[in-house]
Amino acid sequence: MKRVLSGIQPSGQLHLGNYAGAIRQFLDMQHDHEIFVFVASYHALTTSGDADELRANIRQVVIDYLAFGLDPSECHIYLQHDVPAVCELAWLLGCVCPKSQMDKATTYKDKVAKGIAASVGLFTYPVLQAADILAVDPDVVPVGADQQQHIEITRDLAQRFNHRYGTEDAPVFKVPEVMLREGSAVVPGVDGQKMSKSYGNGIDPFMAEKPLRKRIMKIVTDSKPPEEAKDPEDSTIFQIYVALAGREDERTQKLAERYRASGEHGMGYGEAKQALFELVMDTFKDARARRADLMQDPGHIDAVLRDGAAAANAVMAGVLARARSAVGLG
Ligand code: TYM
Predict the structure, then answer these.
(1) pTM of the model
(2) Which domains does the chain have, with CATH numbers?
(3) Which listed residue, of 23, 116, 151, 208, carries a Cα 20 to 30 Å from 178's Cα?
(4) How far does the centroid of ligand 1 lie from the alpha carbon of residue 89, in Å?
């Protein structure tokens, strides 16, 4: 059985981009893969300054994983700060990572351009991510399109480490493959930029019905009137719709037709937004109900995290011992 690892930062409420890019892949894989899914709490410290907010966000990501349908009997769910081996591995990997490689990482530049403080933690973020991944020897890492460069860096660091310390027959780290969903694109937020927890442009599928509708009605559009034909591909509303329903879905095709119609049969953007709102409510009907129950059961969340950390720590102990011994520590 192939082993899978992925994680999400608790830097704010999860959104449709996280679901479409990552969580849906976890759900598809959990029955026939050995899967480790964690909450990247150390990574969130690169952007968070409020302890209470971080604590709440960490908890909420776990609840939302379960609400979306991750099944703890099939999937190891844990917190990054419950598996200390990753920090030690990050140091070992940092010592084979050329500084120039971090200089090239685009997420650092993007975040600093958005006003996030240029800390050393933010700069070396991809090294810690490589440690998260290599620590469990996964075969594949399912992520959204925006994380591709980080997985490339992980593969490169694993190869550098193996080259320096391993042998062809006995590499220290397994070199994992990235997995993107077919046709996967970065999902735009309500402002048309990449949907991101920290940019305040997300759509939270667990919002109460009224504010959710209001949020979707906020999606930016151009000023074409209803009677003018529109190219669906130019529309943020349509891109989000496709990310959720898929291109082949009958509802997507119908909506595309509505965009292309003109004259008295033309469509205003309000109609497209209403269609997206209905799609979100329909897609997450069960998840929304499950989440309400999970919020009432903190003991269950604690038990899930205890089991998840125990499973992850057991695997990581072996990998860390291998890496320590390879470099000459013990
Ligand atoms: P994060 O927390 O930004 O996002 C979590 C997952 O959601 C995907 N995603 C998106 N996909 C499509 N469109 C979007 N607008 C969008 N926004 C987010 C991301 O690609 C990701 O799969 N660095 C990671 C967290 C991390 C990690 C890891 C991931 C730390 N260690 C090890 C995998 C393996 C991050 O910031 O994801």
Answers:
(1) 0.96
(2) 3-187+298-327 (3.40.50.620), 209-283 (1.10.240.10)
(3) 116
(4) 21
